[in-house]
Amino acid sequence: xxxxxxxxxxxxxxxxxxxxxxxxxxxxxxxxxxxxxxxxxxxxxxxxxxxxxxxxxxxxxxxxxxxxxxxxxxxxxxxxxxxxxxxxxxxxxxxxxxxxxxxxxxxxxxxxxxxxxxxxxxxxxxxxxxxxxxxxxxxxxxxxxxxxxxxxxxxxxxxxxxxxxxxx
Length: 168
Prior knowledge:
The structure is a single chain. Helix 3 (41-50) links the parallel strand 1 (35-37) and strand 2. It contains 7 helices and 8 strands. The protein is globular and about 55 Å long. It has one domain (11-166). The protein is α+β, with helices and mostly antiparallel strands.
């Protein structure tokens, strides 16, 4: 989403971020979305503010997170694996992709009994992931939908009203 040496986030990831759902819908289903980039937070914060994004966005710069989940590829740091394929498999498939540096990916985690489980990952083209249902469908609990379907979600005005009352 944002390389450590870049001055701004990548365009494709910016498009995806601009299509994130209203996070209150996810929160209403006990689900959260957090963007993670390898860039330092000192670069992420002004870019986030410039785009008026409100979603949580953290830096993995001082950790191995991106390498552990195969979205930063550097043979000097960790064996290359992308989209569940090792470097040898990627090379055999042909030179259709730059297999170094920052790569797109999305991972889902579940916290249960103070244990974090990695439940899902997808890589490469993520632009099809937009909308509240899409994100809920990726989680172990799914849509958690009752008989009224989408009518169970609050309107933006209801969320605002709820927020006002909770601050009192």
